[in-house]
Amino acid sequence: MQQTSSKQTKQPLRRAAKDSRRRAGISPIAMLVAFCCSLAGCSRLRQPPPANFVYVTAQQTFLRDRVAAVSNRTGMVSNGERLVVLGRERRWLKVRSPQGEVGWIEERLTASQKLEDQFEALRRSSQSDPVVATASTSDEAYLHVAPGRTTDHLYLLAESTPLSLLERASVPKPVAPGAPAPASAQESGTAPAPRMEDWWLVRDAKGQTGWIYGGLMDVSAPDALLRYADGQRIVAAYLLATVDDPDSGVLDNGRTVASIPEYLAVLAPYQSGLPFDFNQVRVFVWNVRKHRYETGFAERNIAGYLPLQIALRADPYGKGAEAAEKLPTFTYRVLAAGEALPVPDPVTGLFRPGRTVDETWRLEGNICRRVLAPGAPPPAEAHPDMKKKKVEVPKRRRRS
Asked: Which of 76, 162, 221, 239 could pair with 234 in a Cys bridge, judged by C-beta atoms 3.0 to 4.6 Å apart?
C-alpha cells in the first residue's frame, strides 16, 4: 500500500514538471541547442592563433592543388609576396596568396618571417645613411641580409634596377671543394691568403635594402669619362658644374649640347678587398677653346674613403670678392700619415680606418684651389704604405 501511494504521489509531480516545461516552451532538444550555441559563443571570444607568414624568394612560381607528381595550378605568386601558411606536408607548404588563391608551394622557394624582420631591421638602421654613389644592376641579382654568397637572400632585383650605394664590405670568396692551392702557397707550404670579393649595401627605389655582390652592378659614370680613366675603375662620379659651349660638338639626339657638365671622379684599381675605397681623385673640366675634357685636378696614391661632400661654398679663409663667391667645393677623407691601412672586420667585412684627414678644394674656373685655414698644415702627402707597394691593375675583360 505504501508503494502504490508513492507512485501515485510521483506521477502528479512528473506531470507538473512536464507541464511547467511546456508552459515555458523549453524542450530537451532546445536545451541542447542552447548549450551548443553557448559553446560557439565562447569560442568566438577566444583570439585566433597568430598567422604564420612566408615570403616568396623565386621570381615567379605556381601554386598547386596537391603535393603530387601530377597536379593542377591554382594560382601564381611573385618575388617578395607575403603568403599565409595554412598547412605543411614534408617539404611543401599550403598557403594563401594576397589574391586569395590557395595552393601548395615548395618550402625552399620561400623565406621565413624571421628573415623578413632582419631585412626590415637593416632597412631601418640604414635609412639615414648617406648615399655615396649610384649604380644599376648588370643582371638579375638577389639582395642578401649580410655580405657573402652563402648568406640568406630574399628580394630579387631585375636587370638595370637603379641603386643607391651606402657602404662597402669585403669577405672571402668561397673556394670550390677540391680546388688546388695557388702555386705560391704550394711552394712556401703556407696556407694561401683568401681571395676577397666586394659587396655593397644598397637601397632601391622601393626602399628595399640589402647587400649585393659588386660584380653584379655597374657604377653610374658618364661615358665621356671612361676614356680618361687610364685603366682604373670609376668608383663614383659627381656633377660639379656646367660650362656654356654652343660649339661643343657634343651631340644628343642629333642636336648640339651647349651646356657641358664638369665632373669630380674618384677611382681605384680593378681589384676587390682593397683597404681603401679609392686611391685617386680627379676633376674633369671642359676646355671651351679646344672643345674637350681635360684634367683640372688630380691626386694619386692616397687611401681615400667615401662619402664625399659637394656643395656651393665661399672660401671662409680667403680675401676679396672672389673668396666670397660661392663656387663648387668638394671634400674627401684620406688616411692620415702614420695610420696603418685597415683590414676588413672578420665578421661584418667592413673597413674601419683609423684617423683620417679632410681635404677641401674649390673649383675656380678650370683649376682647383685648396680651402686652407691660416696656419693649417699643407696638403697630406701620399700615404707611405701606398708608395711601398704598387697595387697591380689587372686588365679589364671587355664585355660583349
From this structure: 221
